[in-house]
Write a structure and sequence with these properties.
Layout (H helix, E strand, L loop, with lengths): L6 E10 L2 E10 L5 E2 L1 E2 L5 E2 L9 E4 L5 E5 L6 E4 L5 E5 L6 E4 L5 E5 L6 E4 L5 E5 L6 E4 L5 E5 L6 E4 L4 E6 L7 E5 L1
Antiparallel strand pairs: 1-2, 2-3, 4-5, 6-7, 8-9, 10-11, 12-13, 14-15, 15-16, 16-17, 17-18
Amino acid sequence: MKKCEAVFLLQRRYHLGSATVDATTVQCARCWRPRLLASSSGDARLLASSSGDARLLASSSGDARLLASSSGDARLLASSSGDACLLASSSGDARLLASSSGDARLLASSSGDARLLASSSGDARLLASSSGDARLLASSSGDARLLASSSGDARLLASSSGDARLLASSSGALACWRLRC
């Protein structure tokens, strides 16, 4: 393969979980493949492999973040400490955040409708049901807080002691801050 001579400088934006990284791509004018860009500090970012399918951001400290596998379907964020966050499975439908401590947070099921946050301690917080209308926050102690009913109009806060706080009725006209059953 001939040495790339003419290049374009392109700005590309990558989304790393909740963070956004803006990277400058040195792209060959002949083969259109992104090349390796190294800053004066020696911090290198590999934007594409020779096949053009794998994208890796690596800092000078050796902290590596793999954005896409060779098949382009799996996205993995891995720090130098071995803490891995899997953003998408090979099918692209399941999203899982898992830390090196084994604390797993499932953000979306394969159907994309159920969202569950679960820590390693077994504390589970269900954010949305499969229908997408009910939102429930429940701690491991059994303390449940219902934020919205299936109709989306009623909001109820209930503690484990049975003390219920109704914030809004279905009509939105009634508000009761404290109610003991």
